[in-house]
Design goal:
Elements lengths: L1 H14 L10 E5 L1 E2 L13 E4 H9 L3 E5 L5 H8 L4 E4 L11 H18 L6 E4 L1 H10 L7 E10 L2 E2 L14 H9 L3 E8 L2 H6 L1 H6 E8 L5 E8 L4 E4 L3 H6 L10 H18 L9 H7 L7 E2 L13 E4 L1
Parallel strand pairs: 1-4, 1-5, 5-6, 6-12
Antiparallel strand pairs: 2-3, 3-14, 7-9, 8-10, 10-11, 11-12, 13-14
Helix pairs in contact: 3-4, 4-5, 6-10
Length: 317
């Protein structure tokens, strides 16, 4: 009961102050390693950001700053104090200490915790692998993921409790809830899954995080579809809402107006919470130099497995 009261207080204090506070939010998106099978196609680069994440954030009313992996801590300290929230995207990278994407996730997670502890509302949305790495970092680097090998499958989600009890879903409309709950509306492409029992058996995760929904694969495997921190605006989702509107190379993507609107909700909510954060870059020049507009997009015509990626467009770093 105490946890529920704290969640309601946090949600009220966060969202009641969001309107008109920051009209020009900026979201940082972490880059991710280029996988070994596609790196020969991009020899001059070491990481990428799928353009679908950038478009999803921009469609929800924010600008984007790329946050490049494998940088010194001082770089992330400056970024985290200059932007208003973060997206940790999905992709292919190794979990655990010493791996570039994981180390960057771990660093920004800890910096974001400090910001929130000091009174700055700083949201993080972890998507697919970004969510998996987020909960691994929250679990003191202990990986509790299982190989579930789900490829291009669409599922409904099962809310553990009413969405009104979850900060992530607190502004979900009845139509969006119906779509997510009753249609194959979430696109899943992930090798790894987190299971409810393992999550709840982890002292760290059970104390600090709450499972908000699950999905069940066509093989009958139930896995966590979404989870959130009990105190901070940190959200993790196993599925890919950005692909539904902005990717065209992946097979079996769920389409339709209701499904588009339901999937857009997740980036809308991230940006909404980020408006509670008034952080800015130290100068307009620094801000301009940091924005994604400084980088060209690449239209990747090759299919994955033929030297390309599963992304329609991407940014290279």
């Amino acid at each position: 009961m105490k946890v529920l009261i704290l969640m309601f207080l946090f949600r009220f204090l966060t969202y009641s102050s969001s309107y008109e506070l920051n009209k020009e939010p900026i979201i940082g998106i972490l880059s991710i390693e280029i996988s070994p099978d596609t790196s020969p196609s991009f020899p001059a680069y070491s990481s990428l950001i799928p353009a679908s994440y950038v478009k999803a954030v921009e469609s929800s009313g924010a600008r984007v700053v790329p946050v490049v992996i494998n940088k010194p801590k001082s770089y992330y300290e400056n970024i985290v104090k200059s932007v208003n929230g973060l997206v940790l995207p999905g992709g292919g990278a190794k979990n655990g200490r010493g791996n570039p994407y994981y180390e960057s996730v771990r660093t920004v997670y800890n910096l974001a915790k400090e910001l929130n502890e000091n009174g700055t509302v700083f949201p993080i949305l972890g998507v697919c692998l970004g969510y998996e790495f987020l909960i691994t970092a929250a679990n003191d680097d202990v990986n509790l993921l299982h190989n579930c090998s789900i490829f291009y499958e669409n599922y409904p989600i099962n809310f553990i409790k009413s969405p009104s009890y979850a900060a992530l879903y607190s502004r979900l409309t009845s139509e969006q809830r119906d779509t997510l709950e009753n249609y194959n509306s979430t696109m899943n492409w992930h090798i790894w899954c987190a299971y409810v029992e393992d999550f709840r058996n982890s002292v760290l995760l059970n104390n600090d995080w709450v499972i908000t929904s699950t999905s069940t694969s066509t093989k009958g495997v139930e896995f966590i579809a979404s989870a959130e921190h009990k105190k901070y605006p940190f959200y993790g989702i196993q599925f890919h809402p950005e692909k539904v509107a902005f990717e065209w190379k992946s097979p079996n993507l769920p389409r339709g107006e209701k499904i588009l609107l339901a999937n857009r909700y997740f980036y809308d909510q991230l940006v909404f919470v980020a408006k509670s954060n008034n952080q800015t870059f130290s100068s307009k020049k620094e801000e301009r130099d940091a924005l994604i507009y400084n980088y060209p997009t690449r239209f990747d015509t090759n299919l994955k497995g033929a030297g390309g990626t599963s992304y329609t467009q991407l940014y290279l770093f």
